Amino acid sequence: MANVNVRATKQILLLAREMSDLKAFVYLSTAFAHSPIRSVEEKHYPPPMETDELLSLLTVLNDKKLDSITPSLIDGWPNTFTFTKAIAEDTVLRYGGSMPVCIVRPSIVTSTWNEPIMGWADSVYGPIGLLVSSSLGLLRTIHCHTDKNLDFVPADYVTSCLIAAAWRTSSR
């Protein structure tokens, strides 16, 4: 996760800084990036670890050592995905330089509502698999907290939001 969410984000930002006509840099994060915080607002939060500190660990430690320290590194975060997304958001702000940047935090992305066609999805993993298997009657029960809500958003809504965010960021 760290190589994809943090290292790649830093590398893309460094490349984007060389693009003189770039109007906006939009980073797709997740509503769960700051899951230890009960109520997340539209603002920057300090990362659980600095970008370069995490990247240094990836460079100097082997996979076995990384696996052994991961639980203590991500303490407070439910998984490495949300932990690295929180760091990547900070990476965008630190390495964005003078570029107009913004961060979009959708919740769990599911199949499309209307565009390009209703119900389009590129895989049946994660939430899509859950929805498909339950709608076909293959999954009849699931252990969950009845006082919690699933927070899904259609992929075409997220795409529209990303386009609007790019436009708004470039218009500032």
UniProtKB/TrEMBL annotation:
One of this protein's GO BP terms? long-chain fatty-acyl-CoA metabolic process
Q: What Gene Ontology terms describe what this protein does at the molecular function level?
A: alcohol-forming long-chain fatty acyl-CoA reductase activity; alcohol-forming very long-chain fatty acyl-CoA reductase activity
Q: Which SUPFAM superfamilies match?
A: NAD(P)-binding Rossmann-fold domains
Listed GO CC annotations = peroxisome
Where are the coiled-coil regions? none
InterPro entries in the record, alphabetically?
A: FAR (IPR026055), FAR_NAD-bd (IPR013120), NAD(P)-bd_dom_sf (IPR036291)
Q: Which residues form the Thioester reductase (TE) domain?
A: 2-159
Catalytic activity annotation: a long-chain fatty acyl-CoA + 2 NADPH + 2 H(+) = a long-chain primary fatty alcohol + 2 NADP(+) + CoA
Pfam families with a match to the protein in the record: NAD_binding_4 (PF07993)
Top-level taxon: Eukaryota
Q: By its UniProt entry, which Gene3D superfamilies does this protein fall under? A: NAD(P)-binding Rossmann-like Domain
Enzyme Commission numbers on file: 1.2.1.84
Give the EC class as a word.
Answer: oxidoreductase
Q: Which UniProt keywords apply?
A: Lipid biosynthesis, Lipid metabolism, NADP, Oxidoreductase
Entry's family note: Belongs to the fatty acyl-CoA reductase family.
Role of this protein: Catalyzes the reduction of fatty acyl-CoA to fatty alcohols.
Its recorded name reads Fatty acyl-CoA reductase
- Native organism is Cardiocondyla obscurior
